[in-house]
Design brief:
Blueprint (H helix, E strand, L loop, with lengths): L1 E9 L2 E2 L4 E2 L1 H21 L5 E4 L1 H6 L1 H9 L3 E4 L15 H19 L5 E2 L10 H7 L4 E2 L15 H4 L10 E2 L14 E2 L4 E2 L1 E2 L2 H6 L1 H18 L3 E5 L22 H15 L5 H16 L2 E3 L2 H7 L4
Parallel strand pairs: 1-4, 1-12, 1-13, 4-5, 6-7, 7-9
Antiparallel strand pairs: 2-3, 8-9, 10-11
Helix pairs in contact: 1-3, 4-5
This protein binds zinc ion (ZN).
Length: 306
């Protein structure tokens, strides 16, 4: 059997405004999540939702809806603030952020929360230990063979991922991107140079489909799971006629140009209704390829890791 993991990162980051906004979180709650849950129900899909503690506290209904529909509630950190990314936090702070977010999500969902994806996929040498200490079992923050250059934050740390495994594995105690003896299971995010994510699907659908064909062949011959992710905020269009200055998140000029200005321009393409259409097409197409769609937790059980 071939497996497709459709995962979603639930947060208040506005793609249009390039910043965190509670108003965007409200649209995620009222528009994007109901849309996704309906789409998944119609297509018999169980999905994993990585949710920040912040949006869970702001709109607990988001977590309730997801849990009530039988999907996996997973953790996307306590906050998505760039200054509090996991690779900038001490071991103690990583543990306390993880514990707090886990408690918030478990209290609302009545589910045990054991899966984690770091905001912006930023982790460091302390993250495997922090995850173990906070009671997590699964990580999905490693994107093997993905080339980021200046387009994302924490790209130096991400260079380690150029040789990380493509199939499910137990991580080392110091590095989520390597096999080892820790108790943490890594479920790599599908990528090959380019990441297999919603923004590629919207920005260049041809490249996305080429990458998908490659991943389908890899899955069939090597038994790799396809692990795709997108953000519910991609189904929201916040376009406004007012001219705006792009919010600067980094002091470095290069980072500002690539990770803020250029990246934002790319990410604005096909937001909202066109994104819904592209996602539907992708789901139809993958169904025709005979893939089973399960949650990350379920996949780990099927593979005997949990
Ligand atoms: Zn995120």
């Amino acid at each position: 059997m071939n497996y497709l993991l459709l995962t979603n990162d639930v947060e208040t980051h506005s793609i249009y405004y390039n910043t965190l906004r509670d108003e965007t979180g409200y649209k995620v709650y009222k528009q994007a999540i109901p849309y996704l849950l309906d789409l998944y129900e119609k297509n018999n899909i169980k999905s994993t939702f990585f949710i920040t503690g912040y949006i869970a506290q702001l709109y607990p209904g988001v977590v309730k809806m997801i849990a009530d529909n039988g999907h996996e509630v997973a953790c996307h950190g306590l906050t998505h603030e760039v200054e509090k990314a996991f690779d900038t936090l001490s071991l103690e702070d990583q543990i306390s952020h993880l514990k707090e977010a886990k408690k918030i999500l478990e209290d609302i969902s009545n589910q045990e929360v054991i899966s984690f994806r770091a905001p912006a996929l930023r982790v460091n040498k302390d993250t495997p230990r922090a995850l173990e200490e906070a009671g997590f079992k699964i990580d999905s923050s490693i994107s093997p063979q993905r080339l980021d250059f200046f387009f994302s934050f924490g790209s130096i740390e991400k260079i380690k991922r150029l040789i990380s495994p493509r199939k499910i594995y137990f991580t080392s105690n110091e590095n989520l991107a390597r096999r080892g003896n820790s108790k943490i299971i890594e479920l790599p995010v599908s990528s090959f140079s380019l990441p297999f994510v919603g923004s590629l699907m919207r920005y260049n659908n041809l490249l996305f489909r080429i990458l998908k064909s490659f991943l389908v062949i890899e899955a069939k011959y090597f038994g790799t799971a396809i692990n795709y992710y997108m953000h519910p905020t991609e189904f929201i269009d916040e376009y406004s006629k007012e001219k705006m200055k792009v919010n600067r998140r980094s002091k470095s000029f290069l980072k500002y140009i690539f990770a803020d200005i250029v990246r934002r321009k790319m990410k604005l393409k096909n937001l909202g209704a066109p994104a819904k259409l592209l996602y539907k097409q992708f789901i139809l197409d993958i169904n025709n390829n005979g893939f089973e769609t399960v949650t990350i937790k379920e996949y780990c059980k099927i593979k005997g890791f949990l």
